[in-house]
Fold DUF6199 family natural product biosynthesis protein.
Amino acid sequence: MQWIAIIPYLFIGVGLLNLFFPRTAWFWNIGWQFRNAEPSDAAVMMGRIGGLLAIGIGVFLLVAGV
C-alpha cells in the first residue's frame, strides 16, 4: 500500500494549483464546457479558499503519518 503515501502530496499539489492559479484550475474543471467563459470573482475566491483547505488537509495527512 505504498501508493497511499502519495495522497498528501496530491492534496498539497492541487491546493497550490488552486491557490496560485485559480483561473487555470477553473478552466480545467468547468471552463472547458463553455465558449468564451470567464470565472466570476466569487468562483476565483472559492477556488483559493478550496486550495487553502486542500493544503491544510495535505499537511495534516503528512503530520499524521499517512
